[in-house]
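Appendix B. Chain record.
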Amino acid sequence: MLGPLRPEPTLAVHDPLAEVIVLAKPDLLYQDRGTWVWRETKTGGRTRTRETDVLGKYPQAALATVLLAAGVLGGERDGSRVELEILRPDGPDIHLVDPRDPIAVGRAREVVRDLAEAWHGDLLLDPHPGHWCADCEVARWCTARPQANERGVA
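Structure tokens predicted for this chain:
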């Protein structure tokens, strides 16, 4: 029996070891016979390929795996899963990740760590200007702004 569907809920999880608050927004969260299911939906190309590293390619699924493995949602963990649905023109590819599988959890932690490592260890908080500064409303006052580019944006 399926529990209530929670489309795009905002989850806030405190990680005291890393000293961070993790914000996550699953595409869909629901319970299936008392266990949590975290569903992410992505679009894919025309060619159907069986992904070999879905956690590396889709970091949202990696974060979901880490959070479910840690039991942050409570409830029964046996049977909980991450469902990654990749929509393609010829039909969906569904990938299931078991947050009790030590290999999957290890890979998921590696992906999350690699993505967070640079900003988590940054104690200087130096800005990293780039092309995204072109539309910034305070770019003309920013001391870290890049030199004017070909569009004349500083």
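Further analysis of this model is presented in Appendix C.
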